[in-house]
Specification:
- The complex is a heterodimer.
- Chain A is built from 43 helices and 18 strands.
- Chain A has a 4-stranded antiparallel beta sheet with strand order 4-9-6-7, with no helix packed on it. Chain A has a 4-stranded antiparallel beta sheet with strand order 8-5-10-11. A two-stranded antiparallel sheet of chain A has the order 1-12.
- Chain A is elongated, with a radius of gyration of 41 Å.
- In chain A, about 50% of the residues are buried.
- Chain B is of the alpha/beta class.
- Chain B has 13 helices and 15 strands.
- In chain B, the strands form 5 sheets. In chain B, strands 5-10-1-13-14-4-15 form a 7-stranded mixed beta sheet, with helices on both faces. In chain B, strands 2-3 form a two-stranded antiparallel sheet. A two-stranded antiparallel sheet of chain B has the order 6-7.
- In chain B, helix 8 packs antiparallel against helix 9.
- The longest helix of chain B has 26 residues.
- Chain B is globular and about 60 Å long.
- The chains are: A alpha+beta, B alpha/beta.
Chain lengths: ~1100, ~450
């Protein structure tokens, strides 16, 4: 007969021994496929498997043959008790099951070749159980006597137990691991602080072992795959900031990275310290908050004797009040100077006038504090008034000596938030003479005021008339004298942010020569806003008299400082540029020169030494990141009408500099000097960069680097630079050195070189401190150790259980432990990469947008993040009452929430009848277990058995067939009916009765995880199913009950998977005591951290096998 | 107890012996690798003849059986609906029916046991910690031809490796159709831009890269002494990878080829594809086909494979009119619903269209009186026939191109009624390798050439 004629394989053999293919597969020995292998310990009982004796009878012979083979092969090798068993097996089992049967079981060739009882322990274990339960031999065969039965069971158990006793804690074979792409990205992130996501493009991950990508067996360095690592390493190196300071990393690459990193650092220093001298469009004051506290600190120091403060305690006072020490010192000096300049004396007087502690007027510290605040407000008002507003009103004024400016006109702009929108805005206005004859007359005209006021106020004042009888425009009001007046402004309905500008003008004709202060105050309800205008007659001799004092005042105090303190976007631009908008000068400055440093006050009076150094480094980086000096020189030369292209700052001799006209000579000289300093700073930093890369190598390679390696790395750098080598410049050579460090096997592979031999026994070695610290961090962080962990490792702390546990606990508390949400839970439960899931038909489900997909993914990540860092029991994975939602998910799931949740995922308790919560309610899970158009109870049921309970059904027979793809088909059948039709065949029914009911329980959740009450065709959802034993599972709550009953399986699966993830290998027989203990932890309410800690403490985790035993399973020739 | 039949016993013995042969494979190594010799001899023998190129397009999960057939010869040939895109190339193609891989058929994992071995006929290891299939014929060819072209072979794909286990086995098996060795899949490239750079970018020189690689190779060699023996093979991969890159750099820099033949086109008109993965499948596949053509045209490589979808693929085909659902779950397993069967057929048609497109591009390239298609061997196949039944006792296979006039095309070859020994897919592979100048006594489970070819 022709041997093969389109006859499916199973058909050809099915009549030999088994009724149906599925029954055969049901009893698939565990070795190959994941079959029911969690049913190992005493805890796992027969609930997994069929108890249908009819089918068993048909199947048993086959499996018996398998284990007979194993036993006979394994006897000599493993155990004398099994050796004694051989005749018994031979007599009772072997007769039926000779080699021919193995045609049905492809595994037989491998299993029979095994000489290691542990290798097939899953089969052994099951065989013992079957014999013990009387399911073996089959009923039609001669039964075993009870003593024979006991003998077989005992022999197997004894053998397995003996193996466990002998090998418990065996570290097992762990193949050399390469970083997974996720680990690569995390490691780069931890090394550089940058999320570059380079690993994603490697596309070389695969899943092995217990189902994770961190298993060495499935990790290859393919063909030219290292090229991708080289490219990635070069990309990382390109992000290195190589300037005049230590190497750091920045999101932008190359010189752009250097420039932006420098800006970033400068900005940070400015921001955290407050003061900077210049301003720009849209500026906001910042940093002024230091003043009141500085005055207060100085006040306390002034009364130090009374307050019991020591002579040298000014710095401490500053620290306590969170004010920079140098600034307080500066204020202290300013307040104690002799001959203070105008108007400084006013503030000094006010400060000294604050009631002293112990005096009659003293009412406590708060009095002094609020007094200091008032002084500050006055000072602020003065500074603002003195500075000339630039351009349009919105721009913040700048006060430098150059810009101090008092004229007879000043617009005063007031802006504040109204308490209630319809009340009139009240401004109190008061004139005051601050310099000059205080008894003379003063007239101030407020122009264009009439239309702005409420009718009452309008009627109260005489508009368009001068007290001296002259006429003024009808919209103007003239005020004089020192009595305050109150102006009520109309507020348009609905206005909350109110602003008004008072156009003040000193009437020079009728006023004496004096400086007049016009003070406008608004009570905002929460405080007062004060604006001053300083007015003086045109060409007032007084102004010339006090000009020097005003300059001294301006430079003695920090300038009014404004807006996001970037070193660029100067407004106004500095001299000698033409400051007019759109002038060529201005454009040249903004597009070419870009920066101008004027943070002298900050550097000298506020920063401490370290910060000043950092600021100088940042500026050297900034100005060294492009040809700043030459561009500016070009401008200066152009300014003189000469050619712009003559020479550069690097080749200008002092003689040439001296030949520049005096107007720019000092600028040119400063430029030349600064360039020299910047270049010198960069050069001086070069040796440090090499050291930095050496330090980086230690972190990246997760171990100290030897003197020889250090020498090699240095030599590589110098070879790259040498003219006979690659002739690279310093920056390129350092980048190449970084790339070389990150392409090295020491970074890409997780070497665990053998280390200390200790009391652990002849078969195992303790991992070295470095290797153990790496295991720990890769287990809990999916990345390299941090500084603290390396320190602990170097100090030998990890050798003690307490030290190891302390570090593990620290790692678990760190947010980086949340990476396990994707790396462990995501891979095991199947939502890994869900943010890119494209298995939904979006023409049918247009609701499944990219944004929704991201939210569903983040829900799952947040949920497991909470499992990891919350303290709840692992039961929470299945049965928690808390859900993680944002508005989008709440909408998607049809939940009404008491208040909007926003776009961030937050934790809320479930309170809805359509309950969801825990793993089974996660939209991402419900979606990945559904085909594009419909739900699949089969897929979902299989997922529960496989991923939750660890008792996967056998693979379907090749010719299992299938049901139609759509739940809204026109054949008039529901999914249930179609499935029922399909399962009518005995070959299918058996397995389907195991998983269909579990899947049907979730039918109320549609293919994208929403709740539904009916199918698309209007049919009612029937979310229930009946198991083989007759029990019915109804809905999610029914499924939860079912899972509660089978919790030990869930615990065992979770434990074994976590161990497999931690170790990067398959479960071994010798792991059983550890897994039992983990299950015990789960059962007694332990949380994720407890499991992780137990694994970390286990010998499996802390040791390695002395010699890796060649795998008996492999087909080595 | 069921009776033992003599057949089954002998069958088992047969299997055992086959197992030994296939799994051991030491003889493969012992066959002299003649690349260098042939390379030296070739110029004098065939100085200017274009080389033969081989490309394999593979799609997963089988075909819709009713629509996959061909009858008749040459211009008279009639094609099933699924093959319709090949109408214009009937005279250039050979329909192959009835070939199969016995070891795949025997495997209990209906999917993974029948996928990665399509081009090798090898057994798929069922031990989780032992990744092992068998070197595939394209990679055997690449090994043979190494040194003749800058790139040994192009191994392309559309979908990345799926990160999960299937039946307890790694989905690596379901994602790799080309295996560089028995234990290592070849690097599959799914980014068109990277393939383009590999072909077109100036890969010569690269002094700095080589300096870095020299250093890290020294690292690897020094660490080799300090690690477990079992880990050394992993590290060997790393060193191998470095050698591979260095070889490519070296070959890219070499101007003159060992044979006298010069590729006709050196100017590249194709635009560099976008950096990111193409968003839609037709664009992605079209780019990959174009890149295969480009590689052949520039003689950058002579061996290419492209995996159009992974085993158990969830690929969707909304771009085909009326086709909805995902390839494996919905379309392959279509519940025998006629309208869904048509959808599945359309996906087959779409895959065959890639072959037809490749034919059309290669046919348009003149190579001194012959076309590039005349000088190519294009194999389009899947790992199952009726995908719904996981039917692996015969496979859908189409061959196009004349292999440098070594094949008589325009034929339908059906082996279904032939003895097993004549039905092995590996027979075909032996014949194809012959056309490429690699004459092996046996490959996989075959020791004879394909009859009739």
């Amino acid at each position: 007969m022709p041997f093969l004629q389109r006859i499916p394989f199973w058909e050809r053999h099915k009549n030999k021994f088994f009724a149906t293919p599925s029954q055969c597969l049901e009893w698939w020995p565990g070795g190959v496929l994941e079959t029911a292998k969690r049913s190992v310990g005493p805890r796992a009982s027969s609930d997994l498997q069929t108890s249908n004796p009819r089918q068993l009878r048909l199947v048993l012979p086959w499996i018996a043959a398998t284990f007979v083979q194993i036993m006979l092969n394994g006897l000599a090798a493993e155990s004398s008790s099994l050796a004694q068993l051989a005749p018994l097996l031979q007599k009772n089992c072997f007769e039926c099951h000779d080699a021919t049967v193995s045609q049905g079981g492809v595994n037989l060739d491998q299993t029979t070749a095994a000489s290691d009882v542990a290798r097939d322990f899953m089969i052994w274990d099951r065989a013992a159980r079957m014999v013990q339960e009387g399911k073996m031999p089959p009923a039609k065969r001669e039964p075993l006597s009870s003593s024979e039965r006991a003998q077989i069971v005992d022999a197997i158990r004894t053998t397995l137990d003996a193996h466990i006793a002998k090998h418990a804690g065996d570290p097992g074979p762990v193949a050399l691991r390469r970083l997974t792409s996720a680990e690569y990205d995390f490691a780069i992130e931890d090394l550089t602080g940058l999320s570059l996501s380079l690993g994603r493009t490697f596309v070389n991950d695969a899943v092995g072992g217990e189902g994770f990508s961190n298993v060495g067996d499935v990790q290859f360095m393919e063909d030219s795959g290292l090229e991708r690592y080289l490219e990635a390493a070069k990309t990382v190196a390109d992000h290195a900031v190589i300037g005049s300071g230590p190497i750091r990393f920045y999101p932008d690459r190359g010189l752009t990275g250097l420039e932006l990193s420098a800006m970033d650092r400068i900005q940070k220093i400015y921001r955290s310290n407050g003061f900077r001298t210049t301003a720009g469009e849209g500026a906001e004051p910042y940093g002024l908050t230091h003043y009141p506290n500085a005055f207060y600190a100085a006040w306390r120091y002034l009364h130090r004797t009374a307050l019991g403060i020591g002579e040298g305690d000014l710095g401490r006072l500053a620290r306590d009040l969170h004010v920079p020490g140098p600034f307080v010192e500066h204020i202290w000096k300013a307040l104690n100077q002799s001959n203070p300049p105008f108007p400084m004396a006013r503030f000094i007087d006010a400060w000294r006038a604050l009631p002293a502690p112990g005096s009659a007027e003293f009412q406590g510290d708060d009095q002094a504090r609020s007094g200091c605040r008032k002084i500050y407000e006055e000072l602020d008002a003065w500074q603002t008034a003195l500075a000339r507003p630039i351009g349009i009103n919105e721009e913040a004024p700048v006060m430098t000596a150059d810009f101090i400016h008092i004229t007879n006109r000043a617009p005063v702009r007031l802006q504040w938030t109204l308490g209630s929108s319809n009340a009139p805005a009240m401004v109190r206005l008061q004139l005051d003479s601050v310099l000059g004859d205080s008894h003379g007359q003063t007239f101030v005209i407020i122009r264009e005021l009439l239309g702005l006021l409420t009718p009452e106020t309008t009627n109260h004042f005489a508009f368009g008339r001068h007290p001296r009888g002259e006429t003024v425009p009808p919209t103007s009001l003239v005020i004089h004298g020192t009595d305050p007046i109150v102006l009520s402004f109309k507020v348009p309905p609905g206005t909350t942010n109110f602003s008004v500008t008072l156009n003040l003008e000193l009437d020079s004709r009728h006023s004496e020569d004096r400086i007049v202060r016009c003070r406008a105050t608004i009570d905002t309800g929460t405080g007062t806003v004060t604006r001053l205008a300083l007015l003086a007659p045109d060409k007032s001799p007084l102004l010339a008299m006090i000009a020097d004092q005003l300059v001294a005042f301006a430079s003695a105090l920090p300038q009014v400082s404004h807006r996001e303190p970037a070193p660029s976007d100067r407004d106004p631009i500095p001299a000698p540029y033409d400051n007019k908008y759109e002038s060529p000068d201005r454009n040249y400055f903004h597009y070419k020169v870009k920066y101008h440093r004027d943070d002298r006050f900050l550097a000298e009076r506020i920063l401490d030494d370290q910060e000043r150094h950092d600021l100088d480094v940042a500026w050297a980086d900034l100005l060294g990141s492009f040809d700043y000096h030459d561009l500016k020189l070009r401008f200066l030369k152009g300014k003189l009408g000469g050619s712009k292209d003559v020479g550069t700052t690097s080749d200008l001799t002092p003689e040439q500099v001296a030949q520049f006209p005096e107007s720019v000579r000092s600028d040119v000289a400063a430029l030349v000097a600064d360039r020299k300093a910047v270049m010198a700073a960069h050069r001086a930093a070069e040796p440090g960069h090499i050291e930095d890369v050496l330090a980086l190598a230690q972190r990246a390679w997760r171990r100290p680097i030897s003197a020889e390696e250090t020498a090699r790395l240095r030599r590589f750098y110098f070879d790259l630079r040498s003219p006979s080598g690659n002739a690279l410049n310093h920056v390129a050579a350092v980048r190449a050195l970084i790339a070389r460090v990150l392409t090295a096997p020491a970074f890409l592979y997780r070497f665990e070189p053998p280390s200390r031999r200790d009391e652990a026994g002849p078969e195992r070695l303790a991992l070295s401190d470095d290797a153990l610290s790496s295991r720990l961090s890769f287990f809990l962080w999916a990345s390299i150790p941090d500084e603290e962990l390396r320190r602990a490792a170097r100090a030998g702390e990890l050798r003690e259980a307490s030290g190891l546990v302390a570090q593990a606990q620290r790692l678990l508390r760190d947010p980086k432990a949340r990476r396990l949400a994707t790396e462990f839970f995501g891979q095991w439960y199947g939502f890994y990469g869900f943010e890119r899931h494209d298995g939904v038909d979006r023409t049918r489900f247009p609701e499944f947008t990219d944004a929704l997909r991201r939210s569903l993914y983040e829900e799952a990540v947040a949920f497991f993040g909470h499992i990891i860092d919350g303290n709840g029991p692992v039961d929470d994975i299945l049965f928690t009452e808390e859900v993680f939602l944002n508005d989008e998910l709440a909408r998607h799931y049809g939940w009404k929430t008491a208040s909007p949740l926003g776009s961030e995922i937050v934790r809320v308790r479930r309170e809805d009848a359509r309950a969801r919560g825990g793993l089974l309610g996660l939209g991402a899970i419900l979606t990945v277990t559904s085909p594009p158009l419909r739900t699949s109870p089969v897929k979902r049921g299989d997922w529960v058995l496989r991923r939750v309970l660890g008792t996967p059904p056998p693979p379907p027979p090749a010719n299992a067939g299938s049901i139609a793809d759509d739940d809204a088909d026109d054949d008039g059948l529901s999914v249930r009916e179609r499935l029922a039709q399909h399962s009518r065949q005995a070959s299918c029914a058996h397995c389907h009765s195991r998983f269909d009911p579990l899947g049907f329980a979730l039918e109320h959740f549609d293919p994208i995880g929403r709740w539904r009450d009916a199918y698309r065709d209007g049919r009612e959802i029937e979310a229930f199913g009946t198991l083989q034993d007759g029990a019915t599972i109804r809905g999610l709550s029914g499924l939860e009950d079912y899972l509660r009953q089978h919790r030990p399986l869930f615990y065992r699966t979770l434990s074994a998977k976590l161990l497999g993830y931690a170790l990067g290998r398959n479960e071994l027989l010798s792991d059983r005591p550890l897994i039992d203990a983990l299950v015990e932890d789960c059962a007694s309410g332990g949380g994720f951290a407890q499991l992780a800690l137990r694994i970390v403490r286990s010998p499996q985790f802390r040791y390695q096998r002395v010699a890796v035993i060649a795998d008996a399973n492999s087909h080595k020739p | 107890m069921p009776p033992q039949s003599a057949t089954s016993v002998s069958r088992r013995r047969f299997l055992r012996s086959a197992t030994g042969a296939v799994l051991a494979l030491p003889w493969l190594e012992s066959i002299p690798v003649r690349a260098a010799e042939t390379g030296k001899k070739l110029p004098s023998q065939v100085p200017t003849r274009p080389p033969v190129r081989f490309a394999c397009l593979c799609f997963a999960d089988g075909v819709e059986p009713k629509h996959w057939w061909a009858k008749g010869e040459g211009a008279e040939m009639r094609l099933g609906e699924a093959l319709r895109p090949m109408e214009p190339y009937r005279k250039d193609m050979i329909y192959l029916g009835g070939l199969f891989n016995e070891r795949a058929l025997e495997h209990t994992s209906a999917h993974l046991g029948r996928f990665p071995n399509l081009l090798s006929g090898a057994w798929v290891s069922t031990a989780q910690q032992d990744i092992r299939v068998g070197q595939t014929m394209d990679q055997r060819l690449a090994q043979h031809l190494a040194g003749n072209t800058p790139i040994p072979s192009l191994v392309l794909g559309i979908e990345p490796t799926e990160l999960r286990l299937e039946d307890g086995l790694t989905m690596l098996y379901g994602s790799c159709i080309s295996w560089k060795s028995d234990t290592r899949p070849a690097t599959k490239e799914i980014y068109p831009a990277r393939v383009f750079d590999l072909l077109v970018g100036n890969r010569s020189g690269r002094r700095l890269d080589r300096s870095i690689l020299d250093e890290v190779a020294a690292d690897a060699r020094s660490v080799r002494r300090e690690i477990h023996a079992a880990d050394r093979s992993k590290l060997e991969d790393y060193l191998e990878s470095i050698r591979d890159i260095e070889k490519r750099i070296e070959l890219a820099g070499r101007e003159r080829r060992i044979e006298g033949w010069q590729p006709s086109v050196r100017e590249v008109t194709m635009q560099r594809p976008d950096e990111a993965l193409p968003q839609d499948v037709p664009t992605h596949m079209r780019l990959m086909m174009d890149l295969i053509v480009l590689a052949f045209q520039m003689d950058k490589t002579r061996v290419a494979s492209c995996l159009l979808n992974n085993d158990l693929s969830a690929m969707t085909f909304e771009f085909l009119e009326g086709v909805r659902g995902s390839l494996h779950v919905d379309l392959t397993h279509n519940g025998n619903k006629p309208e869904v069967e048509v959808m599945h057929m359309k996906t087959n048609q779409f895959h065959v269209q890639q072959l037809a497109y490749l034919c059309s591009r290669l046919e348009a390239i003149d190579e001194g009186g012959t076309t590039a298609l005349d000088n190519s061997l294009l194999l389009c196949c899947s790992n199952m026939f009726d995908g719904d039944q996981h039917q692996a006792d015969h496979l859908p296979m189409l061959l196009a191109g004349r292999g440098g006039n070594k094949l008589k095309t325009g034929r339908v070859l059906n082996f279904l009624d032939r003895p097993i020994s004549e039905r092995r897919a590996c027979n075909l592979y032996l014949s194809l390798m012959d056309c490429m100048g690699l004459e092996l006594p046996r490959f996989g489970d075959a020791d004879q050439r394909l009859a009739l070819l």
